[in-house]
Amino acid sequence: MIDPLAPVVPPGSLRARPQPEFALPGGMRLRPWTPSDAPALVEACLDPEIRHWNRPGSLTGPEAVDRIARWEARRQAEAAVVWAIAPAAGGPAGDPVRGRAVGLIGLGDLDLAGGSAEFLYWLLPAGRGAGVMVPAVDRVSRWAFEDLGLHRLRLTHSVANPASCAVATKAGYPLEGTMRGALLHADGWHDEHLHARLRTDAAPA
């Protein structure tokens, strides 16, 4: 029998292991953020599309370095885990843009005891149009279910953002409902679609 009071994932399970890296189709990979990725994070905070859907605020270079450090601190606290989406290789070995981050994906609101977390992601213009986000969501999902042991992952987005809706459904996250007036954007309150996937769900085709 299952003990409903026992944690789904024991505390310490996330910080006890190094953050994994994953290969993605198209020569991309997921890897931890590093201080050298700060320019990409500053750029993301200035990108109109990212600002509209994700509300990242604005950052200077040093502030971006601090935020990247806080992401690792949050992973150690088992509150979140965040990856950079970047080329696995590119350009000559001395090229300063070699492997530069073009996007972010992660799990926030992480609740090991309850067995759940929520996706967050964005792509810079350099990362858009190549179809990288669906396999990234699926790969992080498989790690969260099979390796970490979570039970349920959710993905939410504004109903006015059909691109995120397509990512969710293609990655095996069916629509569960609409949360009314759930998130404040620059143009007012937006209804949000709620998608979710369980560890027991079939993987997407």
Summed up:
The protein has 205 residues and is an alpha+beta fold.
Walk me through what this model shows.
The structure is a single chain. This protein is an alpha+beta fold and 205 residues long. The protein has a single domain, classed as Aminopeptidase (3-Layer(aba) Sandwich), CATH 3.40.630.30. Helix content is 28%, strand content 29%. The chain is built from five helices and eight strands. The protein has an eight-stranded mixed β-sheet with strand order 1-2-3-4-5-6-8-7, with helices on both faces. The protein starts with 21 loop residues before the first strand and ends in a 7-residue tail after the last strand. 30% of the residues are buried.
